[in-house]
């Protein structure tokens, strides 16, 4: 059930759909622990739905994406016309929805950081993006062999008297001691870019997933359906924040509207993902600390619209 949204003068939320132009994206492929990532997904979807909704991890690696978006605006709110820019960096899992069943892969955000309060508010409140604020350094053009960094407020430790501090969270840099090579040919279609992304994430074998022809069917669904995202959207209850006053599993589509190219960088990269008590990437996802070699970055130069979504399950 929905009701009219009350637009007060102090609202940060413009109404969707949301238009994103001049997107410079760089993606890195990160080793993680399959069991821990699957538990993360089950805790966020299967458990709160009472088993009605399940997403099964499709790939051996997670996606670390760094997007510098030059233009973000509303395509459905003439009362709040205007443009912001946004930097968005985060870790994503790619999964198949096995309950209720669908071949189309879902991109599921696990941790996200943005540099805009409006982007954080709209992302969390409208869709359920797990967005937090960060201090970003991300290239504004693609392809780029420059590194990137995200600093954010974290708790290194939890306990009485422990204070939060701003610390490095994600870092990427060209790999030291590795000479740049000639970049592979530019990928000229959205289908080729999606294919390169899925293959770089290293899908599990069909026998590991327990579903026949999983990889082929999932790739085919991706090529023709665009990027579908899944979220746990919830709000704490004011009476007791251990309870939720609203909780739903929702999905929405991101549709590419202009594709100018994609490919792999000439430089190879190494990535450092720092874990803290409040941001325990090692404990919850199995990402090892320290610098790890991740090979070439997959870049993209495109525009997209973030469309309205649907409720899959509400409890």
CATH architecture: Beta Barrel
Q: Major sheet, described briefly?
A: 7 strands, mixed, barrel
| Cα-to-Cα separation, first versus last residue | 12 Å
Let me know the number of strands: 12
Stretches where pLDDT is under 50 for at least 5 consecutive residues are none
Write down the domain tally. 1
- What is the count of DSSP helices, taking H or I runs of 4+ residues? 6
Shape: globular
Mean pLDDT: 91
Q: Under the CATH scheme, which class?
A: Mainly Beta
| Alpha-beta content class | alpha+beta
CATH superfamily: Acetoacetate decarboxylase-like
What's the helix-strand series? Answer: EHEEEEHEEEEHHHEEHE
Radius of gyration: 19 Å
Topology:
Elements: E1 18-31, H1 34-46, E2 54-57, E3 61-74, E4 84-99, E5 101-114, H2 117-127, E6 131-133, E7 135-137, E8 148-154, E9 165-174, H3 190-200, H4 206-209, H5 214-225, E10 227-236, E11 244-273, H6 281-285, E12 291-314
Parallel strand pairs: 5-6, 5-10
Antiparallel strand pairs: 1-3, 1-12, 2-4, 3-4, 4-5, 7-8, 8-9, 9-11, 10-11, 11-12
Helix pairs in contact: 3-5
How does this structure look, described?
This protein has a seven-stranded mixed β-barrel with strand order 1-3-4-5-10-11-12, surrounded by four helices. It has one domain: Acetoacetate decarboxylase-like (Beta Barrel), CATH 2.40.400.10. It contains six helices and twelve strands. With 315 residues, it is an alpha+beta fold.
